[in-house]
Amino acid sequence: MDGLYFTQDNGKTLRIYRADKSEKSKSGNKLVLLGKESLFFTEAPAQARENCDLSIVLGRIAPGKESLAVQIGLYEKKQKKTVSRSYNFSLPYERNYELRIAVEAGFELSGIAFKPDNQDVSVLGIGYKKSFSGLERQDSLLKTDYTSAKNLAASSGKSIILNNKKSVTASVFAKIVDAGLLKITGQDGSGGFSARLEDGKSLYVPASLLSSSVIVEAEGGIAEAYVVDDAKPALADLHSLLWMEPGGQGRRYFRWSELPDTLVIVFDDYDYQDEYLKRLAFFAEKPGFRGRVAMDAEIAGLHGWNAHDYSPETLAGFFNKAAPGILNKSELELKELLKSNGILVQKGNTLAAGHGALISIALESTSSLRRLFMDHEASHGLYFQDADYRKLAARLWAAQSPAARRFWRIHLAWRRYDITDQGLCINEHQSYLVQQGASNTRVYLESVADRLAEAYPERAEAIMEDAELAILEAEEAIRQFNLFLKGKYGLSAGNFGKGKREK
Fold first, then answer.
1. DSSP state letter for 495
2. pTM
3. 426 plus 490 within the same structural domain
4. What is the residue range of 16's domain?
5. Tens digit of pLDDT for each residue in 287-346?
6. Half-sphere exposure of 74 (CA within 13 A, CB side)
7. How large is the angle between the packed helices 387-398 and 367-385, nearest 10 degrees?
8. What are the distances in angstroms from CA 3 to CA 17, 40, 48, 284?
């Protein structure tokens, strides 16, 4: 009709006619359904070359009811006179809809019957598209497949079943309407993850950590739920990664859903992590090594870190300074990975800083340490990418009393950081504060003070005196960090992820 065509999966188009074979319509590039059954045919059968979806885009002509019900019947080439497949969609309110119906390779569509529930709607587009499972909202358009629409209607909008694409680059995404518990679990009882979220908040879980069929349930209703795959490392809530098991590959790659330019590497063990990052740790932060690329023999008997974080600037500096032949196979692999994710940018013969950050943990860590390390490294990733957070961290470091600063400098030196680098001190100060919840600040720093007093017995009395004031100031600093984290990201100290394991 006047510009409305059926788009095939090979990009070619077929004209759409009314059942009476008329072509002209005052409606322009759309088919108007005036609250009653309407029948349309394609000029020739439209064959699907592969398994895909029949996509039908509908738009409301008037606001109408809060919900929309529409019956859709499909005519196939082999059955021209009768509907071969029928679907009843019952949909929550939205201005426009994209309805998806799964069809198999070889399916030949010859006609479509529409029957809206006494509402005037228009057909804005019809064609074959890649398969989609779930519920997605974008710019006043609700996209859903038939199975998901049925699940949603049957559960009063609180449950949906997704076909999970178990790819290393895919994630299951769910967003809730009202505050409450969200659960993403395997339909086969294999478990999954849950999170208690505020109004309108969401959760990403890597598809590889879930079964092939996933149930999404939300106490406050589901606003969106679908599988997203943009051919990059899977988006992940950081705490959903804490329950992983060693995977045989030695390392797996993800992106932090809150700051998607953050590359997260989860290693099976510390030794494997060292192959990639130990030399980098000495270049970035270790006294006596910072700023130069050490030879293997120099650091063979020394400890790197149990978890890591690096900015694009540090990474570019490391790889640019590395002499030919000094880097091992894993470090060279890392360089290419960083380039492919935009953290490093090739400019002629050198590498320039791109955007984002790199953080890592190892599954060899105990469950409690995994969480501590993940939140510690996540705060560094945030520090590298958020200028306002860096300003806050610098202000709180500068506001310390001489006693508190002495305590922190001794603390960081004891941990083998190069304390001549003030930027490093500022960054580590904020990270050691926000790696655990605010209520644990005093207990944590008191334990640090005890360990420092034991390590430096000649200064034990002075350390304990400085510690009390440092703790009081740290509790105020945590309050200010939490105000920032909560206001901008919905996070808090010790809670840089939301997901909890559901068995």
1. B
2. 0.89
3. yes
4. 1-131
5. 999 999 999 999 999 999 999 999 999 999 999 999 999 999 999 999 999 999 999 999
6. 24
7. 100
8. 11, 14, 22, 61
